[in-house]
Amino acid sequence: MSVTDFLRQCPLLLESDILSLSSKFWVSQNKLIDRELALKHKVSPKAGLVLQRLMDMVLFADLQQFSQQAQLKPNELQAILGFLNSIGALRVSRNSQLHTVQVLLWHALHGVFYAPICRRKPATPLAVAEGCLRASLSFTVASFACATLLCLSGAFAWFSIGSFCAIFTATFLLSLTLHELAHGYFARAPQESQPVVLQVGTRLSLLHQPLHWPQEIASSITGPLVGVITCLGAALLWQQFISIFWQSCLLGILSITHAGALFPQYSDGKSLATALKERKCLK
Ligand SMILES: [Zn+2]
């Protein structure tokens, strides 16, 4: 990612916020060591000074002063904090959530939006399912809103559309969870470290050590494939037992959300393209 991308990853920070590095990280000789994923990130000497300072808790106002003394520009400090946030390494504790909401709303009114503070946890099946539940929250709300409108219009009975809506959102959630667990399976197998779930607001990412190209290809294809099979399986079962064709079609259409992840501009497609390139280079 570029410096600009890291700037966009920087969350809203208030002068009264207390910042620190997550306990899963360590700084040594201009290297940020991710102990959880057994990874080392090389950083510039100036960034190294800021990271050293963040090994203890520090007031954001003091960190700004410290970085000025280290001749770091404000946007360079934001890029460092954005990088830390993008890998779930930044800890922020603040006193007033209400004040934060007020500032966020005020800035949003002026067209300024911030990245959420990212959290990471070991990628257990439960943590993946919980992350997928959060990630699919807006989809669930939209589905139930559509169902309510259909009922209010008198076109469908409450029970009929309500039960389908519940199955529809449950299928989406299950397929999303199995999709991510399939990625997690390949990321876990040959590694010294376990993958972690990174919750970015309502979005979910799986962080792991770089994979060798055969595992990367397998992971990139298997995740979407498992998602597609889950959705098509649910569509077939619905057709078999309930026999409402348009509802089965809607369940089947959910599989597009997984197949679409293989387009080169999306995460799985990008990983697949990179792994195929690496394979060609090694030939
Ligand atoms: Zn995927």
Protein described:
The strands form three sheets. A three-stranded antiparallel β-sheet has the order 5-1-6. It is globular, with a radius of gyration of 22 Å. Helices cover 60% and strands 13% of the residues. The mean pLDDT is 90. With 283 residues, it is of the alpha+beta class. β3 (31-34) and β4 form a beta hairpin. The relative contact order is 0.10. Zinc ion (ZN) binds at residues 179, 183, 223-224, 261, 267-268.
Topology diagram in text:
Elements: H1 3-8, E1 18-21, E2 25-28, E3 31-34, E4 39-42, H2 45-54, E5 58-59, H3 60-69, H4 74-86, E6 90-93, H5 97-109, E7 119-122, H6 125-135, H7 137-152, H8 158-188, E8 196-200, E9 203-207, H9 213-241, H10 245-253, H11 255-259, H12 267-282
Antiparallel strand pairs: 1-5, 1-6, 2-3, 3-4, 7-8, 8-9
Helix pairs in contact: 6-8, 7-8, 8-9, 9-10, 9-12
Q: Keyphrases for this structure?
A:
283 residues, alpha+beta, 2 domains, three-stranded antiparallel beta sheet, 12 helices, 60% helix, binds zinc ion
